[in-house]
Each structure stands twice: as C-alpha cells, then as structure tokens.
Amino acid sequence: MSNYARAVCAFYAALALWLTFCTVQTWGTAATWASLTMLSASGVPIVGILREHTHADDLRQLRAELERHARPDTPLHDLTDGIVAMELAAACCETWWTSAGTEHDGPCTARWARTVAACPECAVTPGIPCHDNGRPRADVHARRIQEAKETTR
Predict the structure, then answer these.
(1) Is the domain of 116 the same as that of 142?
(2) Are residues 63 and 95 in the same domain?
(3) What is the DSSP annotation of 65-124?
C-alpha cells in the first residue's frame, strides 16, 4: 500500500470515529432519524478503508503478473533435454554410455583411437584421453581417429 493510500485510510478512520462520536453525543438530544443517519454514515469510511486495501491487493497482483509475463519462458525440461542430447552426441559407443564410461564395445573407434594414436589437436600421447582446454572429452577428436587409421596401415 502506498503512502497516499495509508493517509487516505487514516483519514477514513478518523472520519468514522468522529461520526461515531457525534452520533453518541446527539443520541438523546437530536431527532432519532438524524442520529441513525449519522450512525449509518459512520460506516461509509469503513467501506472506503476496505476498498483501499482491496485496491492495493489488486495492484500487487497486477504487478506480479506483469513481471511474470516480462520474463522469458525457459522451461527446465528444455534445458535438460539439450544437455542430454549433447552428452549422447559425445558418447563414443552404447556400452560406454551405459557403463558410465568404464567399458567400450569391441568396434568402438574412440577407444581404439585413444589407445593407438596420439592426438594432434590436443597434443596428448596414446592412452591419454582428449581434452578441450583442460576439460576431458568423452569422445576423441576426428583428427585422432584419422591419425590412428594412418598409424595402423
């Protein structure tokens, strides 16, 4: 609720108290209809206070909805699917994938190239996995496979 709305609510509360006080003071001395009118009028500022609170809640909900619509939607499952697709593309063989990188199929070219040839791209010797800027790769560079084919001829 804004400072203006708080000030308006304070004014409404003071007005309701003043009208109630006037009603009590005039109850036996003025006409009954006038006292009843002032009593019912003292309830009107209470309605104003409730309206200010409802208005503040509506504004808060509208701001939250606008903020939510302003953010781009990036569902988590799309990010996860992309990561899984990248990892599957990097897998050298199905056995390697299912054994978490501990075993390879017999005709697995990545394992064969890793054991037979050095990698000219990342400058590692046979038996050492390829890497990209210090991060180990699950597969081997294409140049290493080429080198392995040339070495075994």
Answers:
(1) yes
(2) no
(3) HHHHHHSPP--HHHHHHHHHHHHHHH-S-HHHHHTTTS---TT-HHHHHHHH--BTTTTB
